[in-house]
């Protein structure tokens, strides 16, 4: 025991200056500075083209003059633009300010997310921040061209963090539902904390009350930051939770008190999402269904709070439409037009395939779903051709996945092959990935489902609608990169992966606007 303590003191004294200096607060601050600098680069590179953001400014101008029919889509971004229009900002100036504001909201939401996923874990949160900052997706036209999607993705980050947080607190009070996991296991983190040593052959990194040697490949319980290059993960002597409340508060009290549900957090995130993009409802619906299937009655209060918040926020949006005197047929026309505009390329006529436009795609789509009055909305189109609708939904879902994870240098290039190879050849990485709590995987599946289910599978396959997918990428990549960092050759692979993404992101700024 004396030798182990002496060894621990020696290791602490040999810590590098960078390891001692790096803290979570500094990670967030440096990340924010880098994020703001690159948002400025995005605006310089792409800002001359308004893209979909022009509709936000046009809607804000319509609201100012009393023409609310210009704001038939979810109105939060439009309302945020009203003060800018009132003070006389040009379209380009208004878009730039709104984009920077939305990007700040997204960064804050992402910090909340990684704090829920990897509570008080310096190395995991640092890797997550690097992934968020370096993937090409966040430096391409797809991040800039639709401000409402940036806000909606922020809401999904916040809702996912809320979901993981509430379930983690519940499991800390009542113990894990998995009988094979230790009662003191960490909820929401990649690396578990336990009171007993684990065999290194299992490749699972654990923290214990007894100092263990680095050569055995396990983590050391310490309050000092340690080097990522050594592959050591910090842990505390206390079971990890999303926030550090006292042990007594976790051990007693009702399973589902009102305070435990964090209702202000939930309602605020729901308002941010639904008032920005309707597809957030798909995420919420899949999330609550999966939660009921897995945890059943145990999560009924949580599910009820999600459903109630979604209904109240949706009703408030529709109520505002009614008070404003918005013509419903304009909103229904937009949904029907979007549905037809997403007609798969293989279904189009040769003329439209050669020179696709919204009008020709709509006309070709009517060949499958018409005749129809578009002002009646999407429901008649779906009811008239249910089997064709199913076929179109499946094909559009595949198109969405391909444009996001296929050979597209502007989204997540090479990440899927990288994940497959690491899982195949790096056992420590596989072991860490298995430690992700079930609540995290449920949220990940809900995010993926949003991309392949309506309404996004009834919209054109544009990558701009799927910014929330950086969350599943973080969940997959952080444990894998952390596992690789514990292998001599794996460290080079991890660094090469991050440098490669940084190079592809920098390449975005050398191409023409819109690339």
Structural features, described:
This protein is an all-alpha fold. It has two domains: 24-326 and 385-508, no CATH class; 335-377, no CATH class. The chain is 62% helix and 1% strand. The protein contains 23 helices and two strands. The protein has helices at 2-13, 17-21, 24-46, 53-65, 76-86, 91-117, 122-134, 141-144, 147-174, 247-251, 263-274, 280-295, 300-324, 328-341, 350-354, 358-369, 379-384, 386-405, 415-425, 427-433, 438-452, 470-484, 488-508, and strands spanning 192-193, 206-207. It has a two-stranded parallel ribbon with strand order 1-2. The N and C termini lie far apart (60 Å).
> Structural class per helix/strand content?
mainly alpha
Radius of gyration: 24 Å
Please give the domain count.
2
**Biggest pleated-sheet summary:** 2 strands, parallel
Unreliable residue runs: 1-15, 176-256
Q: Strand content of the residues, in percent?
A: under 5%
N-end to C-end Cα span: 60 Å
SSE series: HHHHHHHHHEEHHHHHHHHHHHHHH
Total of helices: 23
Give a brief description.
The chain is an all-alpha fold and 515 residues long. It has helices at 2-13, 17-21, 24-46, 53-65, 76-86, 91-117, 122-134, 141-144, 147-174, 247-251, 263-274, 280-295, 300-324, 328-341, 350-354, 358-369, 379-384, 386-405, 415-425, 427-433, 438-452, 470-484, 488-508, and strands at 192-193, 206-207.
